[in-house]
């Protein structure tokens, strides 16, 4: 690691050492900026790294709400407004019991570089709450969302900060949040993305992250003269990102062998076709059930309680699409031993640092989430543009723009990596390409 980056990281470890996910994400980025920092002393002179690793603002607030038994519940809400050098803060809201400041700082930090890679004018932010939507009635989710927005509304705005969904926040939650915002401010602002089609949403936003990740992987495969046709693919998760990754990979001719949830994984040796995916979507998006029900429904499929997909079957391509640190060194070794040659992250930081190093060392094509899952936020940017112009593009138009953006991100990461002598290192390329634009804007804007 470059000595300037090393100093900044050591200082951060001393002051924020307990924030392990945040330190992990900063370590990955700083480790790959070395050659750029050596070549461009202006970043050290302007103390860019010191400024980039501290959020511009982090808001923590209480969310009291009333459950169906009439009892008062209290959760903690957060919005981490990380960097606004190239546009308003932009990034999702996560509702999950594990949410804390470390997780939201890592997600906000990643979002800064990801949004820069999209080429759209969006800064980086992230937020959420330790609220657990599982097992809650629609009325309870609404009560919680309304209470959250009673505080959040004063910190966001179409040119200030535009939240969206993430784990545990889908169309239902965005509806309750947007309804409450509109009630309070009496204005139909484009203040959230992932909205429903009848009230300002964009076609293809639900599909965008999963489709985008598959488009990105297809570009990686193309560099070795390959495609998805006939490839075996392991996908984790069964939420928004996983569902549309399954759909697009299957459309491109792949056989997707797995999906999972936080309880376990299913392996289906016959592949997950359109009918099986429709079952998963109904199970997860409507019934809000567990993935093990898939194995009860489809003969040939097997459920593995408490296990992730990576050591359960051999594959050509792996796409972790559930959560952070869900693919570790043992998983990476098993994947490589089984012949996997491409890993494309759909989730944010699903691969541990040592597993990433193992993939890179074994010449596996590996794309970091900040590049390959950027299709979601990019299409959120397209939703903001449509709202600003007060019009709606067709699904075909949005999908074509998304596809073009993913090809551009792939090429930007690849070219930046080649410029610094490591043409196949998408981690280095994505970090350098994402960093440069934000850092140069920070210098232009002064301190
Ligand atoms: N939605 C988007 O547009 C974008 C999402 N991402 C990232 O993609 C990932 C998935 O998000 P998304 O699909 O939207 O979220 P969803 O809530 O729709 O789905 C999340 C999936 O991951 C599983 N999961 C959640 N936490 C854990 C855990 N601790 N261990 C194992 N499995 C877990 C869930 O299982 P269960 O059903 O049991 O909860 C579910 O299957 C996240 O990393 C998110 O940050 C990145 C870019 C954009
Ligand atoms: O669409 C957005 O604004 C947020 C997407 C997101 O949270 C992410 O890219 O991780």
Automatic annotation (TrEMBL):
The record marks 166 as: Important for catalysis. One of its GO terms (biological process) is glutamate biosynthetic process. NAD(+) binds at residues 209, 240. SUPFAM superfamilies: Aminoacid dehydrogenase-like, N-terminal domain, NAD(P)-binding Rossmann-fold domains. CDD domains: NAD_bind_2_Glu_DH. Signal peptide: none annotated. Keywords: NAD, Nucleotide-binding, Oxidoreductase. One of its GO terms (cellular component) is cytosol. It holds the Pfam family ELFV_dehydrog. InterPro entries: Aminoacid_DH-like_N_sf, Glu/Leu/Phe/Val/Trp_DH, Glu/Leu/Phe/Val/Trp_DH_C, Glu/Leu/Phe/Val/Trp_DH_dimer, Glu/Leu/Phe/Val_DH_AS, Glu_DH, Glu_Leu_Phe_Val_DH, NAD(P)-bd_dom_sf. GO terms for molecular function: glutamate dehydrogenase (NADP+) activity; nucleotide binding. Residues 202-446 form the Glutamate/phenylalanine/leucine/valine/L-tryptophan dehydrogenase C-terminal domain. Substrate binds at residues 90, 111, 114, 165, 380. The active site is at 126 (proton donor). Belongs to the Glu/Leu/Phe/Val dehydrogenases family. Homohexamer. PANTHER family: NADP-SPECIFIC GLUTAMATE DEHYDROGENASE 1-RELATED (PTHR43571). NCBIfam families: PRK09414.1. This is Glutamate dehydrogenase. The gene is gdhA.
